[in-house]
C-alpha cells in the first residue's frame, strides 16, 4: 500500500510504500512527550513530495537519531538513523499518515529510557 505522510501544515510531506505490520511506542525522554508511533523503513523508500531539507532535526543523548519535524507547525513526521548493518533507516510517525486507522495496528512497547 502507498501511504502519504505529512506534517499538519503540509510543508513536510513524503510517500512510502509497504505494509504496516506493527508500530513501536518508545518511552525515551523525547518519544514519550511526542506520543509518536513508529514504523521503520529503509530511508531510500521515502519519496519526498517537498524538499527533504525543509524539515529541521533535533538530536540529543548520543546524537544517533535525527528527530525530524516541520519548523512551521512543529509536527514530528519521522526520524532518521542507521540500523545495525549501517543502512540509513527512517522511523515514520504513523500518526502523520493520512487516513490511517490506528486501532488495528499492533503496538510494541520499547523501553528507550533504559537503553
Radius of gyration: 13 Å
Count of distinct structural domains = 1
Please tally the helical runs, counting DSSP H or I stretches of 4 or more residues. 1
Overall average pLDDT: 94
CATH architectural grouping? Beta Complex
**SS-derived structural category:** mainly beta
Approximately how much helix is present in the residues? Answer: under 10%
What would you say this structure looks like, in words?
- The model has no long low-confidence stretch (mean pLDDT 94).
- The strands form three sheets. The chain has a five-stranded antiparallel β-sheet with strand order 4-9-8-7-6, with no helix packed on it. A three-stranded antiparallel β-sheet has the order 1-2-5, with no helix packed on it. It has a two-stranded parallel sheet with strand order 3-10.
- The termini are far apart.
- It has 115 residues and is mainly beta.
- Strand 8 (76-82) and strand 9 form a beta hairpin.
- The longest helix has 4 residues, at 31-34.
- It has a single domain, classed as Beta Complex (Metal Binding Protein, Guanine Nucleotide Exchange Factor, Chain A), CATH 2.170.150.70.
- It has one helix spanning 31-34; strands at 2-6, 13-17, 23-26, 38-42, 47-48, 56-58, 66-69, 76-82, 88-93, 107-110.
- It has one helix and ten strands.
- The chain is globular and about 35 Å long.
